[in-house]
Amino acid sequence: MKAQILKAFKYQQLVDMMYMANDGSISKRRVKILKVSGNSFQAYCFLRHKKRTFKMDNVLSLMPVTQKERQII
Questions:
Q1: Residue 39 and residue 50: Cα distance in Å, rounded?
Q2: Cα–Cα distances in Å, from 21 out to 10, 13, 18, 32, 72?
Q3: Sequential pLDDT tens for the chain (73 residues)
């Protein structure tokens, strides 16, 4: 998982992430990785609209966002 996180950081790519919090709850978030340090990384979370720090061990899956979603008119 660390290699995928580093690659997304290198290319400044948005990713959809399944993340397990310390209490065991699972959430799906869209994030942009801002900084990687040790076993954690800092990212802007579009779900909470804030910078957050995540543990790499708690990332369940990571999927790059390749295209923008279409808007309904």
A1: 20
A2: 25, 23, 10, 18, 33
A3: 899 999 999 999 999 999 999 999 999 999 999 999 999 999 999 999 999 999 999 999 999 998 665 556 5
Q: CA-to-CA distance for 38 and 31, rounded, in angstroms?
A: 18
pTM: 0.84
DSSP the chain: -HHHHHHHHHTT-EEEEEEE-TTS-EEEEEEEEEEEETTEEEEEETTTTEEEEEEGGGEEEEEE--SPPPPP-
Cα 51 to Cα 34: distance, rounded to the nearest angstrom = 9
